[in-house]
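Input.
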Amino acid sequence: MRKLICLFCFAVFSNFSAEAQESEIFTLEEFLAMVKRYHPIVAQANLDLSAAEAKLLKSRGAFDPKLEGGVKEKNFKGTEYYSLWKGTFKIPTWYGIDLKAGYEQNEGYYLNPENTTPDDGLWSAGVNIRLAQGLLYNERMNNLKLAKIFQQQSQVERNIQINQVLADATKAYADWVYYYQNTSVYEEFLENAFIRFEGIATSSRLGETPAIDTVETMITVRKRRLDKKQAELKLQKAKLALSNYLWIEDIPIELDDRLRPLPESLNFSEALGIESLLGNAKEVDDHPKIQSLEFDLEAYDLDIRLRRNQLLPKIDVEYNFLSEEIDDADYINVNNYKAGVKVSFPLFLRKERGNLKLAKVKREQAEFKIAESQWKLSNKIRATEREILSLQEQAVIASEIVTESQIMVAAEKRLFEMGESSIFYINTRENKLIDAILKRNKIDNELNLAIAKLFETLRIEYEND
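Output.
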């Protein structure tokens, strides 16, 4: 990885002479490691996970102890109408119970009698209980549980986003390999055609071969040169497409011309870590997409539980015992207290029953979506596996055709040397060999793309960092 980073940075900030350039192998594993480490979408996925953690922290804040205090005074024409000082300390608990403690000291000429306190102030300690709605389940409990679910879901969604980026990057790499192979084929056969042209031209000048053979070999040279130019154009486009995934420290990097793949040792299924899964893919129940949808189902279950709790009446009971001195051993006196009860209950509960029904409908919709997604994923995985197996068989056949075509070209060349063949037949045999090689390259490319599609469909986590 360090070698590649240095190579890319040097390529960006330096000028190289064509003579000094030496090709470097850029493997699929190195490429995917760079994408996973530096690509902006991967960074964005990590930020989404951080946002979920921040929401979890925020929801836990509903259970934080709270300290409050305040002073309120009024003075007019030298008269102190009132001076109110009050401080409270509140501890929310998991259930609908809040523990409270407070102190207040009030004085003034026009002080409201209900605010009268002893000279040293009045201490209080007590509890606020929601007896029906909100006791065993309430909104702050619900929000915290939802935040934990969304944090887990964000982790799954992060992996899905990273998998998508890596799958798209793998497809771009497969196309780069494909067009690199095609360009190499045209370069090789262009060189062969040019060597043959020089030989035929020399033989024609000596009167050993007809001059028309020189024209025919020149046509072949020009045609293959044209094919090579077209292949180079496609290769450049593939390089630019691949460069979309190359970043280093938030800086986009263009693929250097010195980098090349190594097709002969390339194994996409092994590089992506799915070699053992070909023809034996895991069950879709453990699929990340299904897991994400099941987290939605858990969230809907919590919503239903909250809506059911809201059908209960609101009964808030508060009790606080009062004391002048808290350092006295018998400062707790049940006869000195402040208490209250508040009851609220809608007669028809239409709003609450409507919310509950909507929550149940959303849950049923989520269940249907999970079932549909499981069936689609299962079929897509099986279809991709069959495509891979078929392409593997086609690749074997295509390789056999290439081998046999090479034998035919070699035989035709021997016949030409013995004077029993012609340039036309050699060119014909070579053209068929070129078509066979290009066909094999295309099948290999389709196979690599299918393997990348299976990696994308399975949504597995890439481990080869």
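The chain has two domains: 2-13+21-38+141-298+362-458, 66-92+97-133+315-348.
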